[in-house]
Amino acid sequence: MHKLLMDDFYDATYTLFAVHCRLEDYRLAYLLNRHLDLKLKRKPQDLDFNYFSTYPIYEWDNAQEYMTWNLVSNVCKKEEASLYSTGVLFGEEDRTIKTYNLISEFKRVDFFIKISSEAKAVNEKLILNKLQAIPQIITSYEVDLASIKHKEYLIF
């Protein structure tokens, strides 16, 4: 019996940046387009994990440099029915807002920027400097891919 692991056939050819900011996803995509000279557009379908949680995703395929840029939210807020009983038969149902994370190891990260490159290396320092120059971004840094348990969530 031969068991294949995800690492057996998937080689990480991407760079991942974590972004901390309190902006909406469309606003951050606009600022990234403006400051990094990108053309990110929202994909018609969000990342969806069995209707459990959905994460907005933006993409730009730079055919000239053989790079694909993705901006994906790490946070999904979903309103759900509360599980405790109020003791009233026909009372109003309490609703609570639950927060889910795409990558659970980075609960405080708001967004991830994934840069997939087929041909040339990504200049991480230059990108980080440009990200830090955006006043609405609190902080940004490169993520060590070895620290992520579920890398399959980043395949899109």
**What structural class is derived from the secondary structure elements?**
alpha+beta
Specify the biggest β-sheet: 6 strands, antiparallel
Number of helices: 3
Report the average pLDDT across residues: 84
Protein name: IPExxxVDY family protein
InterPro entries: IPExxxVDY_fam
Organism: Winogradskyella maritima
Summarize the structure in words.
This protein has a single domain (13-78, 94-154), classed as TATA-Binding Protein (2-Layer Sandwich), CATH 3.30.310. The radius of gyration is 18 Å and the shape is globular. The model has no long low-confidence stretch (mean pLDDT 84). With 156 residues, the protein is an alpha+beta fold. It has three helices and ten strands, in the order αβαββββββββαβ. A hairpin with a 5-residue loop joins strand 3 and strand 4 (54-55). The two termini are 30 Å apart. Strands 2-5-6-9-1-10 form a six-stranded antiparallel beta sheet, covered by helices on one side. InterPro entries: IPExxxVDY_fam. This is IPExxxVDY family protein.
